[in-house]
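Budget justification note: compute hours in this period were largely spent on complex prediction jobs such as the one shown. Inputs:
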Amino acid sequence: MTTAALDLAVAEAETEPAPRPKRIALVASKGTLDQAYPPLILATTAASLGWEAGVYFTFYGLDIIHRKRLPKLKVASLANPSGPIQLPNLLGAIPGATAAATGVMKKWMRDANMPPATEFIEMARGLGVKFFACSTTMGVMGVKEGDLIDGCLIAGAAAFLDFAAEADVQLFI
Amino acid sequence: MTVPIQEVTETLDTSGLLCPLPVYKAGLVLNRLAPGEVLHLVTTDPGALEDIPALARQRGDALLGVDNQGSRQLFWIEKGSPR
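Corresponding output:
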């Protein structure tokens, strides 16, 4: 190594590396009302802590960033023993049962002063949370870019993994 | 009980709000405070006793004091210097 190169290496070693904020990478794979909250809450919280946060919306999770479906996310009583209303499955299958369970969950949220999912989306975006829209899901389910809320990055798995590789926390929801 | 004597720059009352709202709202205030300024935060979410110290630790802000009054918790957080 030349003297100049050595000096440069020493100088670089003595220079403090730029501090990198912590990062969380979340996968939101479910599109029910109850399952929309955890990724949005975690992403919003992480951003509040000063972290970088990104959510990859894939499969049914894509509904969470779907302009028309987001306000209509539902939770079912059928096959959901922990749901907001406890019905035998046979009754959970009747028309109106899912709407009733969804209504109860929305009331729970309202009564607890919890914002609706739509508002959590705005809170997350306001803090700079990155929204990745799974391009394969869009192709498979026929979702167009214009169907999504503004500001989503349409990308495949590699782009998300590129983001997630630098993350300190990665969670699949 | 530790009640700091530092001057409070801003007070935020999150009574009735659950996680993540106290952390979210406190974070918004702390984002615009200058280093050294103090946020006085009021919470009623029992999780806040763990959450607010975590918020301060993760952000690099200083938790000056906590007063757990049972039905509500009071915190004093000093905005840290940018890292």
